[in-house]
Amino acid sequence: MKRTLLAFIRKEFAQALRDPRMKLILFVMPMIQMTVFGLALSSEIKNIKLASVYAPSDAAARRLAQRFTASGWFLPVAAEGLAPEDLVVSGAADAALVFPAGGFARQAARGRGGVQLLVDGTSVTRARSVEAYARAIFAAHAAAEAGLPVSAAPFGFDVRIIYNPEMESPVFMVPGVMGMIVCLVTIILTSMSLTRERELGTFETIVSAPLENYEILLGKTLPYIVLGLANAALVIAAGFFIFGVPVRGDLWRLFSAALAFVITTVSVGTLISTVSKNQQQAMLGGFIFLFPAVLMSGIMYPVENMPALLKPVVYANPLYYFTTLLRNILLKGGDHAVFVFNMSALAAMAVAAGAAAYGRFRQTLN
Amino acid sequence: MNAGPALEVRGLSIKFGDFTAVDDVSFSVKRGEIFGFLGANGAGKTTTIRMLCGLLLPTSGSATVGGLDFSDGGKGIKGKVGYMSQKFTLYNDLTVGENLDFAAGLRKLSPAYALRRRRELFDLIAFDSPLSTMVSSLPGGVKQELSLAAAMLHDPEIVFLDEPTAGVSPASRARFWALIRKVTELGKTVIVTTHYMDEAEQCGRIALMRTGKLIALGSPAELKGAAFPGPMVELDFNGPAPAAALGGLGKAAGLLELSPHGMRWHAAFRDRPAMEAALAALPPGASRAVIEPSLEDVFIRLVEGAER
User: Fold this and answer.
1) What is the widest separation between alpha-carbon atoms in chain A?
2) Would the CB atoms of B106 and A7 count as touching at under 8 Å?
3) Is the pLDDT of residue A146 over 70?
4) Average pLDDT over residues A113-135
């Protein structure tokens, strides 16, 4: 048993680490994805071109406009010469802040200040962010200028956040991407490696040895569980050193979450291999699983905002629990109740997926 | 080692759904024999071999392989036999040493035993490249010899070779058959499937298969004698055969078989008088020579003849 497993591990490692494509999938692809998803896909909006339209004598308006600029999100652009709407339409500004012609302070003092914010809505995401920022800045401004009660905020946005309720940053994004990478690598590698043996015919040689089914299954999956864990460690280290993602929780929690997740995904990879005739089909099957798994995991879109109809899919998605665990352990230091709940769900999935993989695998041996 | 037959097969059948891949096959193989399976693609050779290696469980019938049966699901049999499938048995992306280490691990051999067996088998196949050689860089013939060594690492009593020489050069085929004979000299039993008639000639006995059934069994000489009790003539018309001559010959009394072989024709007769009568009616220009029937003639008569 031990001898056979060791032989399998040595063989799979030699094959995986010798194949340049595998090395690329294992080591280079995760780094590229971390960079792309961690930095480029961040939904934090910066450099919003803002034109502020007010009378030169309106000091109160100037103070508010300066607060916008000072926030770091907005870049002031010249408002002269064009009507505010034309500024936005022409693309010279992403947003225009239009103060009342009668003077901002006076209007506000009467409790019915009419400040208008024109926002370029071409990108819904960007527009929503602009709204959210503007609201926050105005609230801060109102508080700072004691004369303006917050409750009497002179502009009332009808703000409904349909995108991320959290203002995401790479630190929030990277744990999700880690989960995604580990998922991708383990499912693709496991299913490809098993179908390759079947395709080439070497699988016949393996089953011609007097081995129990579980020995063959373990032999073919254990190396990928180990590789998957190594990959998880690699992306967590990369997140720590490159993106400054903290590791605030216990390492044993991190390890057990990663182990349960990798067992689940390797089992899914095995299941995919039992219905694939060749490596192309295995690859396709892997992606058919991966796309919904990634989209319904809360990595990019908050689960809270998904339609009730789709929520069961989320709760059946191992990546959702793993992402939640990673964020909880890495960023928050591992709240125990959150850990226990998600870990139990993930462990149950690992057991179920493992059992299903074993059952299917045994059927396809004969 | 007990003295019973290496293989004893009784009424072995296997069905995949409605399709009967192997239909009521019975035979036995003596220890130290080279036993060949000859037949077209899909005749059931590979399926039979896979059953006897314990890879497939028969639907009905019984078999003992090396004295063991299928009662344990084929596990005992798997330990007694070595199997070289017709596809790759070695990993091209591993070195020779890594491949043999993996084969040893699959069979749970101790490192010391595996090392000893490896040396013995390298001697047997005269392999002297370094262990760090990538299998992908070896020529096809050497790969097949190495596959055989990997299949024999656990010192099996019976070795099953499924088309071991498919796709290798004629010189490598000859080398491989010399190797098969050496293996039987070590007391092993070799069961081999092949498409090549010249290889079949080298088997001690041959089982001829067609659509899952065993249609003839015997040594090459026995098969020839059974298929062609009378003489066989090779006719050469020095050009295209005249239709009238062929038509006359085809209706001749006592003709068993008339088949084209390139530009020549092979005609088999029930006995010598029938042959002489038929040949007398041929145009004088045709040259004729009495020949020994080949296994190819037997194959055509038994396998393809049955399909007409």
Assistant:
1) 92
2) yes
3) no
4) 75
Q: What is the pLDDT of residues A21-80, one digit of tens each?
A: 878 888 888 888 777 776 665 556 678 888 888 888 888 788 888 888 888 888 888 877
In chain B, CATH 3.30.70 sits at 229-292
Contact indicator for B292, B233 with CB cutoff of 8 Å: no
Average pLDDT over residues B28-37: 93
- Domains of chain A, earliest start first: 2-41+168-365 (no CATH), 48-152 (3.40.1710.10)
User: Distance between CA A293 and CA B118 in Å, rounded?
Assistant: 48
User: Which CATH architecture fits B229-292?
Assistant: 2-Layer Sandwich (3.30)
A43: contact with B, CB 8 A cutoff: no
Residue of A nearest to B151 (CA): A205
pLDDT digits (tens, 9 = 90+) for B132-153: 999 999 998 899 999 999 999 9
Q: Which of B56, B91, B106 sits opposite A4 (nearest CB)?
A: B106
- Are the Cβ atoms of B54 and A7 closer than 8 angstroms? no
Interchain contact, B55 vs A207, CB within 8 Å: yes
Whether the complex's predicted ipTM surpasses the cut of 0.90: no
Q: What percent of chain A lies above the pLDDT cut of 90? A: 24
Q: How far is B91 from chain A (nearest CA, A)?
A: 7
Sign of the torsion formed by the C-alpha atoms of A353, A355, A360 and A362: positive
Which superfamily does CATH assign the domain made up of B7-216 to?
A: P-loop containing nucleotide triphosphate hydrolases (3.40.50.300)
- Residues in chain A with CB shorter than 8 Å from the CB of B55 are 204, 207-208
Closest-CA distance, A346 to chain B, in angstroms, reads: 32
**Quick check: A211 and B79 CB within 8 A?**
no
Task: Tell me the three state secondary structure of residue A49.
Answer: strand
Mean pLDDT, rounded, for B176-203: 91
In this predicted structure, what is the pLDDT of residue A40? 63
